[in-house]
Amino acid sequence: MTHAHLTSWILALILLFVAISLYNKGNEKGFKIVKMIVRVIYLLILGTGIGMLFSLSSISMLYILKAAVGLWIITLIELILNRKAGNVKSSVLWIQLAIALILVLFLGFKLPLGFDWF
């Protein structure tokens, strides 16, 4: 289930940049379609994440923190896409997204379910 979760995250991030690229090129219909696909990917992320969380024998606060940061990232992606559609500046959201991604990657690789890189 870890691979499905990681693949869903990577796909969501790739589709975020695809959607922004489509909007910048003036393809609003394509932007809306990719935005809807990203929302479906959110469901995969949430489903696999909850499945992994409940498969643990004991849940520590670090897992809860990682889940909260994951929800923060999903919220940021949605806010960035919505602000892009409304032509509103979103540089603060991009900075938050970078910080949250670094934090979630660190927690993901540090915790026992992740890869042992640290």
TrEMBL record:
> Does Nucleotidyltransferase appear among the keywords?
no
The cellular location(s) given in this protein's UniProt record come to: Cell membrane
- Please give the GO cellular component terms listed in this UniProt entry: plasma membrane
Keyword Cell membrane on entry: yes
Q: What are the alphabetically sorted keywords of the record? A: Cell membrane, Membrane, Transmembrane, Transmembrane helix
Regions crossing the membrane:
6-24, 36-56, 62-81, 93-113
Q: How does the entry describe its membrane topology?
A: Multi-pass membrane protein
Where does it mainly reside? membrane
Q: Which family does this protein fall into? A: Belongs to the UPF0344 family.
Protein's recorded name: UPF0344 protein D1970_11840
